[in-house]
Amino acid sequence: MCARKIEPDEVLAEIANYTLREDAVGAETRRVAHIAFMDFLGCAFAALDEQDCLRLIRPLAPQMKVPGGARVPGTAYELDPASAAFGFSSLGRWLDYNDSWFGKGGGGHPSDMFGAILAMGDYLSRNSDGRRGVTMGDLLDAGTKAYEILGLHLHVNDFGGFDFTGPLKAACAAVTTRMLGGGFDEIVAAVSQGWVDGQPLRVVRSPRTGPRKNWASADAASRAVWLAIKTMEGETGYPDVLTTPVTGLYDAERNGASFEFERGFDTFVMDTIQFKVYPAQFRTQTALEAAIALHPSIADRIADIDRIEIETHARTIHTVDKTGELHGPADRDHCLQYIVAIGLIFGELQYRHYGDDIAADPRVDALRDRMLVRESLDYTRGYEDKSIKTDANA
């Protein structure tokens, strides 16, 4: 007797149907997706100067080469698609310069998934045997759908102490499974496997931010590619992974709360994605702009500053209001006070300003000690109002 087919959870079915839609992405959205992809490439190539990043993305077997595999642009690496996805996604994320998306419980960086999508596309195109390979249009459409799936999960759902890389893995698994030729059942299976993995902890970002935040998304994207390939090789999924009592995700990780969505899957996230001006946590961007604007008038009077008052919204205070010792570049690029100090002292911010040599400048901590950070209720309302979506600082 055949086993009874389990109907997939509603959310998984909606993701699969959306991923399969041929008409989901219009010309204007694809134009924005092209900008997002080029932005990701720029971030990745800039990170090629960072030795800590290059050390991290080295293959576990240093001489490993996979003929016909996926390449890591900017390097000589030719790896399996999952390893290439980890390498290129890590490069794109390393400088904290890539695009951002925010939601109820924090936010994420959707372009982290482009490394996996490009690795999969490269692998498929190199092994197409004369058939049509993956076009740039295919890549941009896959990216748009991945942005949407991740972004809508984050929009109104609070993941608490779990990291945003959980839904990122689900989104990436959906689109890379489709790139491999998967249909409805395969997409459901791959996405479900992503949720079965369990979710990483957000401790890598808060309260002390560590270097793993630079590669946590790459790890999830790489795992998504691995799951997609295994699914297409016949690995079955768990279509009721969300709703199964006790051991399913809703009960085991969310105290029984289901995912909520304010809108259906379309192109909302890509259409409204936020790009950074500086390599720093997004909620510090406008504070840094103000500091840089003030630099010419106070650069020779740093020692005379009595106090610096910063008004911001509640989420900024929760995530990047940091006093005391900072532990390395990753902690510094998530510290509002450090970033403002750099802007006031140097009139610019580049990734090199997070290094130990700059951090040792006594002016930096002297200014940090004179900063008062307080909430502006107007700014908090602007941040929480999804029709406005401001990240204001003064």
Reconstruct the topology from this structure.
Elements: H1 10-20, H2 27-46, H3 51-57, E1 70-71, E2 78-79, H4 81-93, E3 101-103, E4 106-108, H5 114-126, H6 136-156, H7 165-179, H8 184-196, H9 216-232, H10 249-254, H11 268-271, H12 285-298, E5 308-312, H13 314-320, H14 329-332, H15 336-346, H16 356-359, H17 362-368, E6 371-375, H18 377-384
Parallel strand pairs: 5-6
Antiparallel strand pairs: 1-2, 3-4
Helix pairs in contact: 1-7, 1-8, 2-4, 2-6, 3-4, 4-5, 4-9, 5-7, 5-9, 6-7, 7-8, 7-9, 8-9, 12-15, 15-17
Description:
Helix content is 49%, strand content 5%. The relative contact order is 0.12. Helix 1 (10-20) packs across helix 7 (165-179) and helix 5 runs parallel beside helix 9 (216-232). The protein is built from 18 helices and six strands. The strands form three sheets. Strands 1-2 form a two-stranded antiparallel sheet. The chain has 394 residues and is mostly helical.
